[in-house]
Design brief:
Largest sheet: 5 strands, antiparallel
CATH architecture: Roll
CATH superfamily: Hotdog Thioesterase
CATH topology: Thiol Ester Dehydrase, Chain A
CATH class: Alpha Beta
Radius of gyration: 16 Å
Strand content: 25-35%
Helix content: 10-25%
Number of domains: 1
Strand order of the largest sheet: 1-3-4-5-2
């Protein structure tokens, strides 16, 4: 993979659900960040967005195909941007877009990957339950 130039579609002005500085403990044998670290953060970001709609328990049911377009390196500041795509009776579909800013957030921004994550609201026995806020998130989030 080659280093991409800054992309004009970087979600400037949007607030990421999560921002994380990648550290040496997150690297694989090739010196890049483990894909599983990024997947875990995608899952967390989707849950944060889903909780705007359902303040109780949610679980991840599926994550669509993920293709890593750029590597992530130690020292990259990685942002996970979320958007609710659909709210069903018990499910919430969340789109997560992942961007890395090189050199501790002061360098070029590259699009790393994206995913659609289906979260399901569940009760105490982990059975699907209706989403509580059918009208959408409150202004405070």
């Amino acid at each position: 993979m080659t280093e991409a130039k800054a992309e004009s579609v970087y979600p400037a002005g949007q607030i990421p659900a999560i921002r994380r500085l990648m550290m040496p403990r997150d690297t694989n044998a090739l010196g890049t960040i483990f894909g599983g670290v990024i997947l875990s953060e995608i899952d967390l970001a989707a849950a944060i967005e889903a909780h705007r709609w359902h303040p109780s328990k949610v679980v991840t049911v599926s994550m669509d195909k993920i293709e890593f377009k750029q590597p992530v390196f130690t020292g990259d500041l990685v942002s996970f941007f979320t958007e609710t795509k659909r709210v069903g009776r018990s499910s919430i579909l969340v789109h997560v877009s992942v961007w890395a800013e090189r050199r501790f957030g002061g360098g070029t921004a590259v699009h790393v990957t994206e995913a659609d994550v289906t979260m399901v609201a569940v009760d105490d026995e982990f059975r699907p339950t209706p989403v509580l806020r059918s009208g959408g998130p409150t202004p405070a989030g």
